[in-house]
Design brief:
Blueprint: H1 2-19, H2 24-28, H3 38-42, E1 61-62, E2 71-79, E3 82-90, E4 102-109, E5 134-138, E6 141-147, E7 156-163, E8 166-172, H4 180-185, E9 187-188
Antiparallel strand pairs: 1-9, 2-3, 3-4, 4-8, 5-6, 6-7, 7-8
Length: 189
């Protein structure tokens, strides 16, 4: 009798697994794009002193965060089906001081972004890849790269498509450019 029960259990397990299978669309769905909370969308006027650490953005980890940041602030916006969610770390020097250290990490949720060339058409007001950005390998990723301009400040601006619909951009001021590869490598969603 015991043998029959064991055989019945062994036969029933695969049958149950087949009947309770996860739907195909659920098994292949990509993780959602990190997005700000409603509170973060509303309350962006405050700066953080001291700046938040590597987990300043929900769903984003900046595992290589240079030392010496004193201020930080969140930026979040939703418009026309696009969500921008970023955090800027900064020291207390004036923005025009070439020794000023700042790092801006942003995630843009844009369903049309599926390949690197789409970044040239990124529908955002600031931090775009207009002009002639170069495609380079940096931190183990293929990224678009351009030099910072007046609007972004001095330094280097890079971006990549993390997965379809999810764009990551990073702006590092000139003193942080030597660490940019480590910063890019350390960003995990």
């Amino acid at each position: 009798m015991r043998t029959k029960n064991v055989l019945a259990a062994l036969t029933a397990a695969p049958l149950a697994a087949a009947l309770i299978a996860v739907p195909a669309h659920a098994a292949t769905a990509a993780p959602a794009c990190p997005a700000p909370t409603k509170a973060e969308l509303k309350g962006q006027d405050d700066s953080d002193k001291p700046a938040k650490g590597t987990k300043a953005l929900r769903g984003v980890r900046v595992r290589h965060l240079p030392k010496g940041f004193t201020n930080g602030w969140l930026s979040a916006m939703k418009d026309n089906g696009i969500t921008e969610y970023g955090y800027t770390w900064s020291d207390n020097r004036d923005d025009i001081d070439l020794a000023h250290r700042s790092l801006w990490v942003r995630v843009v949720c844009w369903p049309k972004a599926t390949k690197l060339s789409h970044l040239k058409k990124l529908p955002v007001s600031g931090g775009t890849f207009a002009g002639n950005p170069r495609t380079v390998k940096l931190g183990g990723r293929t990224v678009l790269r351009k030099e910072g301009d007046g609007a972004l400040g001095h330094g280097r601006f890079v971006g990549w498509v993390e997965r379809p619909g999810v764009v990551v951009t990073v702006m590092a001021s000139q003193p942080l450019v030597p660490e940019l590869a480590a910063i890019v490598r350390g960003i995990k969603l």
